[in-house]
## 1
Amino acid sequence: MDSLSLLEHASNFALSPSNMFVPLLLFLLVYHVVMFYQKQRGMYGNIPPGPKPWPVIGNFGGFFIPPAISRRFQLLPRSVMEALTSQANVYGNIYSLFVGSQLLVVLNGFEVVKDALSNHPEVFSDRPDVPAISILTKRKGIVFAPYGQVWRKQRKFCHSTLRNFGLGKLSLEPCIQRGLVTIKAELLRLNKEHGDAGVNLHPLISNAVSNVICSMILGQRFHPEDPEFRAILGLMSRGLEICINSPAVLINAFPLLYYLPFGVFKELRQVERDITVFLKRIITNHRKTLDPEKPRDLADMYFIEMLAQHAAGEENSSFNEDYLFYIIGDLFIAGTDTTTNSVLWTLLYLALYPDVQDKVQAEIDEIVGRRVPSMTDKGSLPFTEAAIMEVQRLAVVVPLSIPHMVSETTEFRGFTIPKGTVILPNLYSVHRDATVWDDPDTFNPKRFLDNDGKLLRKEFFIPFGIGRRVCMGEQLAKMELFLTVTGLLQAFRFRLPDGKPRPSLHGRFGLTLAPSPFALCVSTRSVDGGHPNTGLGI
């Protein structure tokens, strides 16, 4: 081979894509290492203390590498929440972690969380640009949208509109009770089919809870056996789990992974497409059948607001059909997942603690009897309310809140927190804080009662968050939780199936903390020796 041919061969070899990959990868690796340490030496001078991060992967590499190496990260106890809370014992209630080169500050304990979110809301109320979430939501809606004027207008509109359709009012009770009738009827049927094997309550509770928010935002209810609706509810739950508990979390470090044509990446895209088709079809039908004189739900009211702003010449208004889609998606998912899991956790705990279940049912029998429980009974059922609150304290359905972000560099409790830092308000640590709760890991509803048996309100009980990002549907969730739990316990007794292992109380961490799959045996109850008190005649 002559010298010219040899040179040409070498050139082709060096420039082939397969041979360019390795040096390119090495270049990117070195670049990230250099940038990582430059950031640490520069803008991260007075940040809160924390475990020393590894280059490129930061502190959270412990979830993806062998345990022998990951011990350095100190982040492999039984759950993410326990891991993050345990670090406060080493570094204090404000400490730093790195996800890659992204600085993340964890806030532990009620005083610190309250100080940040309530006393400094303008700084701590923003949302981070998390790639996986941003791809799915386009940073629109009311849950993940950035803090600012657009978000304030959209949230204010949604909150006032939902109140007009019954949010937090007794007029919403019949809607919740209709779902409860369906749950009871299905429980009786399924219990006959499955007997001592137990019943999976999740689809029944999820359908009933989702129908309440659907009636308010979409003006319609779906039958429990509607295959498309059941599929959508399943997809919602699966999508949230994929985003947190699968290799799809790597999308946050490498966004292009979202477009991979296989595995959970492909599955996540399909989930997004299916939910999008479902919601956009309903929105289109609303637009076609809109009667501005007779609004049926939030979607109609949103279209009316769009028309009003267009008539006023506000061509660049944030009120548009695209934004409506993301608002409905937020309310649909958030309004279903959190309340469903709260009800399921409550029934699971009461099955695990039958003595508490006995006391709750005795109180309901004494105060309510055979009539349908109402929100007007809430003040007369202190032990029932205390039991529900104790489950909320221990289960913490949204244990790390939704991640916040500081909108500007700020001094907070002696530390400098740079603009763009992701903030995790650790609500799990608030509800397990031994300085404010006696024996915090023990299930004890009486901690919410005074010596006279009256309900105690504790400011460090914050299952719905705190500050300007507090859950907008708090009042709705409380209504659904109370009415569903009291209605079911009035009619049925729940127990664990014989011979099966005790369900884990660590749960499955997604956007919310869901209980691990479980089944309960159901038996009908009677009051004063009468007929079974199923309440199906509502």
## 2
Amino acid sequence: MTTLSRPRSPSFAELFTPKLVTVLREGYGLAGFKADALAGLTVAIVALPLSMAIAMASGTTPERGLYTAIVGGLFVSALGGSRFQIGGPAGAFIVLVAMTVERHGIEGLLLATFLSGIFLAVIGFLRLGTYVKFIPYPVTVGFTAGIAVIIFSSQLTDLLGLTLTVKEPAAIIPKLEVLARALPTLNAAAFGISLLTILVIVGVKKFAPHWPNLLIAVALASAAAAVLGLPVETIGTRFGGIPSSLPMPVLPDFSPDKVMAVVPDAAAFALLGAIESLLSAVVADGMTGRRHRSNCELVAQGVANMASAMFGGLCVTGTIARTATNVRAGARGPISGILHCLFLLVFMLVAAPLASYIPLAALAGVLAVVAWNMAEKQAIAALLRSGWGDALVVLATLLLTVFRDLTEGIVVGFTLGTLLFLHRMSQTVAIEAAPLATEDQADNGDAAATTPQDDPDVVVYRLSGAFFFGAASMVGSVLDSIARLPKRFVLDFEQVPFIDSTAAAMLESFAHKMQHAGVRVVVTGTNASIRRVLWNHGLRAPLVRYRNTVTEALRERR
């Protein structure tokens, strides 16, 4: 007989060895370096305008987005558990970062980012990364779409070139009211630059998909604004340009009051960062057939966030679009991500003065396209068609994210998704009266075994499905509704893979009821884990007897 042994648990080294080390051990040559260099350059060209746009939309200055991509991205690729992950600032964080800056200022943001890095590293070392996969799909679709709506609404001022007389509110309804009142100040030149940027991005993507459409669009828009002398606001007019070097690393202010104030923001950064980065790693696995190390990836994300905060950067996470670009560009391993950071550093050192000419309307156009792509329209339509449960979860998450708060949207969506799952699981649990003789006994003509089928004092009930608290009440009602109590009650667990404490406690109460009525309870078909749970809840002899099969239980005469 062949026995299956339990899989060996991976060692600490196997769980937390960076993929960079794995790739180098496998053998890394010149051909791989060339492929990674080309992929890294391609991703850097995409990341350059996007990083600045995300930083500005987050309520900070454009260079902070570059610091994040360069410093944070370097540690994500060097220490991460994915071969192809590209780290940097992400559109999903725009809302949270902007709210943190508004509440606590830049210093508070840097501290929250550093603390989120600590949280992520701890989550990874505690091996909790595998639990992130339990976030329901409708929740991820809903909050991603909600973030897309918020990102687009946050760019309307620059898209239209509006002049505001009051500070733009964070809440979407008051924001739209303020923007509506400012519509008479629309800047036709800025609006034209926005449209030009969007059309170029879409056009290049369609007719030359391998070209860097974002960089081309921003470059053309900048050239048009400069050559034509258009009256539009640029990075130079608003921020005075960007530095041409990285700052010196500095630890954030760790005063106790400040730490306590930003802990909720840091926790939100860590939660969203874990979800976003592991989702990105899963996408890369699906495109390449590889498998990432989730806990190693979270530790790398933690280190990257701490390093980014020290250099004045924003939250770092794995970015799905840039990671997919990396894979499609032919990357062989993490060195492409490291080179992408070095290319960005070179761009900043050499071309920093040119960034002053980039119109804010052009970067708003970039983010408008990003928001459109983030909203998974086909996925939302499919979820709305799939049934009321999934539709409720995705809509609740989306609407709460847009009109209330991102964290509230995730928590409510996760809660609804969990309740929906429990409801569906409870419907898979069944209990039914079974014939006293099984088919194989009848076929074998086992008269001794089938004799009890004529005995009116023996009853057999079979359970099927995961027996947990969601089904305990239903099963208890069925058992309590048995009209005539037999002398021997057989409860078969052969088709039950799992039982929890609530279900076991219900059975313990039922067994005591049967004992008081003089009914002998026999439990059959339990595996070791189920029997352990039942024993722990008092279901032992003489309260109940255990037999391996129903047949064995039916053979008993006493």
## 3
Amino acid sequence: MHPPAAPAVRRRDFLRWTGITAVGLGALGLPGCSVLSGGDSASGGRGGSGVLTVATQRSLDNLDPHGPFAATEQIRLFGQQVFDTLVAREGGQLVPAVATSWENPEPTVWRFTLREDVTWHDGSPLTAEDAAYSVRRQAEADSPLSNLWSALSEVTTDGPATLVVRTEQPLGTVLANLSLLRLLPAGKADAPDFFRSPIGSGPFRVTSFVPGDHLELAAHTTYWNGAPAAGGLLLRSIPEVTTRITALESGEVQLTWPLPSDQIARLRQNGDLRLYDSPSYQHWFNWFNCSRAPFTDPRVRQAMWHAIDAESLVANVFPETAAVAQAPITSAVFGFAAQRPYAYDPQRARDLLAEAGLAGGFRTSLIWNRTQAPQIRQVAETFVSSWREIGVEVVPQELEEAQWLERLLALDWDMDLQTNVTATGDADYTLGRLYTSAANRLGYANPELDTVLAGARSSVDQAERERLYGRACQILWEDAVGIWPIEMRMNFATTTDVTGFEPTPHEAPELRTVNRAV
């Protein structure tokens, strides 16, 4: 079997998921995970019916795992429970799932052997034709994940248990791409009402769906990888943080995430709760529009970074949930290479502005999406205040999501503050998607970086890919095309009658092994 390869995505998936919206892979037990507060596995005294109630902050309005919202946390969480993938990410490695093995006999050819004991929720067998259909559907969909398959040439079958994927050029991200591809039944998923109550092959099946409110799932007891521990799941949308936490403390819900930093210390003292902490794929950044003066000058961008005290930001705003970043991706992501942090040095910032001919400072603006993260206004205000100290007057512009997206995509902004998630756990998903000249996400073009990222995407040599992404991290960091102040940690909370939960670096954990003590 070939070693795990990594994913490739470029533009459109950034449109539909940003910020605190994380996306999932099913990676369990990432090294470095820890339980922050203890308690025996069944010590809460809350008997359960075998149905686990999960509260999420974002609403689920659509159940198509290949559609326009395919990369959002809520769709990924749903898909993780209801649909299978050919390949899974587990403990940082890409491992067999519905595909038992694979080979790469030619640089542009991949052959996958499928399990023959997988059935859909209606009892019919899952075959290679279903897998081929799913790859084609995702590649052709109006979806943020479609660009994963931009190099796809052909997908065929060789009997009921063999899938053959051909690409136009070598693609080192095929396996990781497949870890995101949810399998759908050929000939059924195109029905107009299919996604009202979709059929999957995963550990749970859909029994009821009220868009924007809740989703009910029942255990698929004949699941090929073992029946789920819980008899069912109830996924509820509770966007207001205080309401979610109150529901958790009362036992109305048994699992929720993410937790605001200012609540964690108090929750840790609650003997009826268990808190989990894990490295994450999520980071914050402040982009500069590198095509718009004065941010065409890297000295100005570097000056803006030297004005930011990232350590104080962590201590004052994210004391329980973040660390100072050392790269344009988090330390949990494959391809991470630590860079030397920009020192907080306002005088150095003023000197750089003077070198750029801006000794008197300048006036600019900052946009952000008001709903992206609970702390985003606080972070924006901190940045604006810090820049004022070096003579840069920044006009804050807090926008509704639709307006923010429209302006972001049109490059109609000076600076943009947001969060982002490397969904696949592989650097290509962020670096190769957002920072190429062709992507033109922030008016930045660098032919050397393009070459580095193209080489990393096409290589199937993981050591070579890691080296190249390290160089990409260095280029972006030194050019200061953005400010990457912090990387987040992922945190979850359960009631103490919940067993079998494992924290993940993203917001779409697998719940097949999770149950409530009865």
## 4
Amino acid sequence: MAYVALYRKWRPKDFADLVGQDHISHTLAQAIKTGKIGHAYLFSGPRGTGKTSTAKILAKALNCEHGPTAKPCNKCSNCSKINNNTFMDVYEIDAASNRGIDEIRDLRETVKYAPVDGKYKVYIIDEVHMLTSEAFNALLKTLEEPPSNVVFILATTEVHKVPTTIQSRCQRYDFKRITKKDIQKQLEKITSSIGVVCEDEALETIAVHADGGMRDALSLLDQCTAQSDEKLTKEKVTEILGIIAHESLWKITDAIAAHDIQSILQEIADILNTGKSISQLLTELSWHWRSLMVYKAAQTLTLDMYKEDFAVIKRQSDSFTHEQLTTMIKTVYEALGQTRWSPQPRVTVEMALMKLCYPYENREATVPTNEKINMLEAKIMHLEKLLSNIGQQAANAPVMQTKISVKATGPGQVENVKKSLPLEAAESLLPDIKVQKNTETASLVQPAIDITDADASSIWQVALRELKMQHKIPALACVEKAQPRSLQNGQLVLAFKASFLKARTERDDYRNLLEGILFEKTGQTIRLVCIMDESAGAKSSEKAPAKQTKTATVPVDKTKIIVADDDLNEEEQKRLKNAVNIFGNNIVNEDKETDK
């Protein structure tokens, strides 16, 4: 007699045999008892959870010679034929290979005829989501109003691909993943029946790797028992199924915590040399790190995963933060996706695990998001300033010399270190200057300009150069002719020959800009005081005007003046806007000259 696979031999025969789907078996049994039999059912759920088996049980319950009954006898002629797939009134259709409109039209033709052997004609359409749009449309009317002795059962693993028009015509039942406990209990029952001695941990390992599917669990058990004549142990199951040993996962995790790249590369090589797959390594690493994350959060491991050494879990969970574990799991999932297309999966895995070893990466994973943003902003500002200073050093020749005093802070260092640099170079190096003696770092103790030694003219020249560096051309044009007269009591006195330049400088935008530059360069608050140059006033008073001009001062909004002058071209508007920025927004409307 030919050997029958365990998943076929142990297929459920009635609702009581269904594992892990009590909510469905109870509901269907009650519907049959009360005579509330639907004309169409939609069974959805993961593979190997009992969808097709339930469909056949329902077909037997409707066509049993003692039924319809919630407990088919599995002994009568009808039940036996359904179990053997020879019953004339049960049609099992694979939609993956019969997905076109022609197959559905044939189905519609056969629906009209009365049952041959039983009371109901049952159409089981497996993987129904594979039907084409035309096939679904052809099925709609028949599915909505089939003959009273016809029942449709649609099964799918991807219910979201089934049109809502089809779903609305069916009673939907969602099959859930079977728990590890239920799978292990069923495996114990089967191994006891077939006379195979197994360790509990061996069956637990099979149940975990079945991933919620009873059919997968029976296939794995079949594979293990076929290759082992002795007692089935956890080690034997691990070897047969290519499962990574816990010890290897623990070593890799410890190496990541210690930033030990060499140990990681060696462990990967050892795993691959035993014939284990890269994808299996990544999958089990994610499971192990999930255990660490769950234990760190709940201080227990009660979830549906295989047993691990609690001492190791506790020790390793203390080595990482929640953010680090999340990053680690995300990294292996990304690597798992990349290995499917990578020509060298080993390199992909090595890169992913080596990346997790870098202390800088691990440190950043623990920093809150707002602090990360602040760190990045500080880095950007620092880089921008360095680039600006490099340009300044290259463009400007030395104008004057100044001394930068640096005081050593570490033991055994020189008390005072002094360097003479060009002023521009000193200003650019000030934010990051470091003077080293052996391995210790000195600290800056003096600002860019010592205000006690500098005069008003030298400080003002520094401010003008900074305006040029910052490309503040309108402001530079306004103040470059001003004469610094004195610097005392925190005030820098500037003399102007033109009143409109003085008035423009006193406005808040230019004043704040200049005072900010002075503070940056001296380290002290310096207030600008603008005065008129007396010599310029005397010269202008000597000239007596021959005629008086009648003028009217009209305040004009400078934000609207450009829009109002439609006759100006683009270049003229640009010059006018620059003039407003420099001279102010008071426009003088000059009338015809008249004698006073």
